[in-house]
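Field reference: "sequence" (input) and "structure" (output). Example, Glutamate dehydrogenase:
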Amino acid sequence: SHQVPNEPEFQQARDEVYVTLQPLLEKKPEYKRALEIIEIPERVIQFRVVWETDSGEVRVNTGYRVQFNSALGPYKGGLRLHPTVNLSVLKFLGYEQVYKNALTGLSLGGGKGGSDFDPKGKSDREIRRFCMAFMRELSKHIGADKDVPAGDIGVGGREIGYLFGAYRRQRNEFAGILTGKGGDWGGSLIRPEATGYGLVYYVEEMMKHAGNTDFTGKRVLVSGSGNVAQYAALKVIELGGFVLTLSDSKGSLVSNDSRGFTKADIGAIAELKLARKYLIDWYNASSELQSRFTYHEGARPWTLVQKVDVALPSATQNEVSGEEAKALVAAGCKYVAEGSNMGCTKDAIDVFEAARLAAKDGEAVWYAPGKASNCGGVAVSGLEMAQNSQRIKWTSEEVDARLKQIMINCYQNCFDTAKLHVQDGAGLPSLVAGANIAGFLKVAEAMRDQGEWW
Ligand code: NDP
């Protein structure tokens, strides 16, 4: 795997895949050629976005779309609006998206895009103007059969609406060119819930297998408080688990009792986040909350609870360090599944995988990588595309049932692939190796069939 020192996040994502593919590459060296080719995006588009503030000043940001791989279908993957966005971050996200989309079993290629624009503190009008300026260029490169972006950090229903409207007016065309759309204009039911729900469905399968258990009474740490975290928390609560933490970029809220957040709390947090406010604003405004929770400024949740069953990182990349992973293992955590993309650092994955390998039956720590455990979001985006193509709309029950089946299949695929290719002697197979090998094989085979390597 060649080195790209100026793209550390991309290097990290690639190294993880490279290392976990070794058992396959040793058996079948011809795949080394395929890997070398897959590691380079088919196309990277980078552009200027000029927009105007409410006070009439000119602002400029960089826009991107990384069209990574289209062997399995149109490029598909979210748009991120966050000041930390750069080419390395979007290439890492796009690369993982390629394998993730393969794991959904749907016809989806992989891509990712966004801008270093910071939506925080911007007015609705500024967001709208930015979205229109961004789409003016992006519209030249996307299409229902070409590239279908979605939301990600900083891009929710409101932004998708502005972006879709901009495309429709600029092109005089109503087409399924984005997913995560509003329910009355092409959106799928369950898309907002899909990543969080899917994450929990995936962990349910892990629990069934590893401990013959379920979420009832489990102590669950969730980080983040955005789209993924909110719906993961709601599903955990629905299944009888206790959500003891949530966090945002300013700090963490930790429950003082064993019951944790209620559904009503999550509803209030959803409103707070729609108004782009912080957990600390919510906490400071109520003495009842101050008695139920403790706020830890600037801290992440992982070291703040002494007894833990499940950890669901759901905020952003590299949000669990090696030290924090050790603290989770020491607190008894048995299941770690990423809602976020590359939520765990390499050091953290090493800690969890070592704990899996060292464990005796029933004591193992089991880690699921985001490209498997968070694929529910893009999967329902794929279902949104299917509904758009047919100009019909499925019920929530139908979409939810399909989502659940996709997550079960994805889990089983990771499990079986690891069992088949990785003989590490542990009781539980490596889901990170299984996910990478299964995703890679599917994409590599499609590319070979299509004459992209031989
Ligand atoms: P949101 O923007 O809705 O929420 C992001 C949350 O993470 C917010 O609570 C935010 O805090 C926090 N956060 C963001 N950046 C940082 C940071 N640098 N440090 C600390 N906290 C941070 O995004 P999503 O919920 O959609 O995405 C969360 C993760 O899930 C991302 O990794 C994303 O790529 C991944 N994902 C999302 C999917 C989806 O369908 N939405 C699908 C698959 C993966 P604050 O509120 O203070 O900004």
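The pocket of NDP is lined by residues 151-154, 195, 224-229, 248-250, 273, 278, 314-316, 339-341, 374, 377 (CB under 6 Å).
The first strand starts at residue 43 and ends at 52.
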